[in-house]
Specification:
- By secondary structure, the chain is an alpha+beta fold.
- The protein has one domain.
- Helix content is 33%, strand content 21%.
- It has a six-stranded mixed β-sheet, with helices on both faces.
- A hairpin with a 6-residue loop joins strand 1 and strand 2.
- It starts with a helix and ends with a strand.
């Protein structure tokens, strides 16, 4: 059994809320962060979300896991064998310290192949030999109400992807969860696009 991109995006948002409720504590080499899903790294968040989803929707997510690209050493964030391959990207305009991150939107907008941005991931997926449907899912955190609205960056991503880079991406799927525990990462938004062609 598989699910649509709309369902994948909604499920991922639901997982973020569930992870946040456990009040996880992220850390770096130099410090420990305040509780909440917001300060976790992209890899930590995706790993925890897939683990959670496999526990509550095993019919869909039991085989979901990172994998290697065909004929490459590069890794893909998630493969649901026979259904989807997905690259995830984290947007976090504010750090745990409540200061705006200087280069936060580069993860989304940098428009060159070989880059680790969402656009770079779209290009990598488009050129890959995966037989599954291909998608990129972007998730990020805002204040409630937003101090920096992620929708502006997301609209910019779509314009660059379609009109500058020439990517064929499907219609945007989106979901949002509110009431997160971190004082800067109070709500999460999740966006997804199928990579077509």
């Amino acid at each position: 059994m598989t699910c649509s991109l709309d369902e994948l995006v909604a499920d991922f948002a639901f997982a973020l809320k569930a992870i946040d409720a456990s009040r996880p504590i992220g850390s770096s080499k130099t410090r420990q962060y305040r509780p909440g899903v917001g300060p976790l790294t992209e890899a930590e968040t995706v790993s925890k979300a897939l683990e959670y989803l496999a526990s509550v929707r095993s019919d869909v997510y039991s085989g979901a896991a990172p994998c290697k690209y065909p004929n490459s050493r590069q890794s893909c964030d998630c493969r649901m064998p026979g259904y989807w391959v997905i690259e995830f990207k984290l947007l976090r305009p504010f750090g745990d310290n409540a200061k705006e991150a200087e280069h936060w939107s580069e993860n989304l907008l940098h428009p060159y192949p070989g880059n680790v941005s969402a656009i770079g991931d779209c290009l990598k997926l488009r050129e890959s030999a995966f037989e599954e449907q291909k998608a990129v899912i972007v998730f990020g955190y805002e204040h409630t109400p937003p101090v920096i609205d992620l929708d502006v960056a997301v609209c910019s991503f779509e314009a660059i992807a379609r009109n500058v880079v020439g990517l064929k991406i499907g219609n945007r799927a989106s979901a949002m969860v509110c009431g997160l525990v971190h004082p800067c990462h109070q709500q999460a938004k999740v966006f997804g696009w199928e990579i077509v062609g």
